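User: Sequence recovery, please. Input:
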């Protein structure tokens, strides 16, 4: 039995006339009659009773009509799902995530992606940088988000955002009353840094910025994530630098967050990693959402910068 048999049977069952069914199917009557006879022989039952006006369904025919209709609906639904999967509109995407990026930017991207492709199941996996690279190579994840990634011949990178760094300090810190804090003012302060795995990482960026300001960061604590780092800052263990996304998303009692006054180009990147050999429509759609978000963000920033430098109109 093949799908053609079901198609022919349903046409005859709906028309109850071989001639009309043949015309509907754009075939001649004899081949249709032979196909129906072959189907009855295969099932071992009579599906139709021939009458003067055409045909009538037997009891077995009535039952098979319902089953054939259900089967055809399942097949059509399956074909539609396969085609949607081929277009990147259906399936599953496994995403490697890490610390501070998950507080603001990554959830917005995933939300936009799910809104655009609601048929795709998004599964998150918490991994450090080296674990993400290994999981990508083993095809256990589709994409991963991380910062300060080294070039790899088999791993592609799509920039998500370049964001400013902020200083976080205890709320009773002498500099907490300032609107912006000079980084060099922390030259004698202990630093709490994160993450403590996956070098090069954000820790290396903090050390680099301090050296650019003429001092070596006195690292007192290395912890796994921004939440732990800010909790220690709140308890007076030291100061830290955090990305803008974490500065806006995390509110930890006992800490004060301020922009840096003397390092206007203190920035950190966030990138999406993927296998360069992955040509799937699903990955293409995901990277497309990232690009759309980045371009929209850059357009807003350009507009805000223009508004800030445009003098008010004289009335």
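Assistant: Recovered sequence (315 residues):
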């Amino acid at each position: 039995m093949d799908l053609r048999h079901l198609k022919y049977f349903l046409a005859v069952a709906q028309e109850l006339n071989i001639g009309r069914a043949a015309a509907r199917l754009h075939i001649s009557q004899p081949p249709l009659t032979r196909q129906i006879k072959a189907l009855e022989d295969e099932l071992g039952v009579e599906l139709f009773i021939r009458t003067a006006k055409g045909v009538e369904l037997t009891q077995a025919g009535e039952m098979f009509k319902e089953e054939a209709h259900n089967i055809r609906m399942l097949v059509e639904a399956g074909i539609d799902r396969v085609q949607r999967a081929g277009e990147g509109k259906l399936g599953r995407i496994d995403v490697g995530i890490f610390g501070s990026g998950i507080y603001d930017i990554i959830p917005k991207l995933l939300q936009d992606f799910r809104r655009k492709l609601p048929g795709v199941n998004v599964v998150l996996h918490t991994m450090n940088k080296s674990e993400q690279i290994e999981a990508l190579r083993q095809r256990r994840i589709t994409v991963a988000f991380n910062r300060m990634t080294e070039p790899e011949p088999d791993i592609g990178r799509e920039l998500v955002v370049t964001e400013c760094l902020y200083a976080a300090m205890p709320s009773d810190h002498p500099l907490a009353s300032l609107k912006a804090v000079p980084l060099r003012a922390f030259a004698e302060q202990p630093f709490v840094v994160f993450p403590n795995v996956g070098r090069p990482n954000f820790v290396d960026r903090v050390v680099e910025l301090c050296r650019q300001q003429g001092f070596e960061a006195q690292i007192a604590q290395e912890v796994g994530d921004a939440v732990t780092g800010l909790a220690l800052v709140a308890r007076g263990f030291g100061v830290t630098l955090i990305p803008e996304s974490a500065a806006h998303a995390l509110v930890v009692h006992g800490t004060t967050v301020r922009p840096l006054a003397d390092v206007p180009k203190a920035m950190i990147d966030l990138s999406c990693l993927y296998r360069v050999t992955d040509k799937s429509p699903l990955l293409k759609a995901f990277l497309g959402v990232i690009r759309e978000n980045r371009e929209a963000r850059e357009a807003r920033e350009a507009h805000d910068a223009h508004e800030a430098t445009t003098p008010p109109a004289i009335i």
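Residues 148 and 201 are 6 Å apart (CA to CA).
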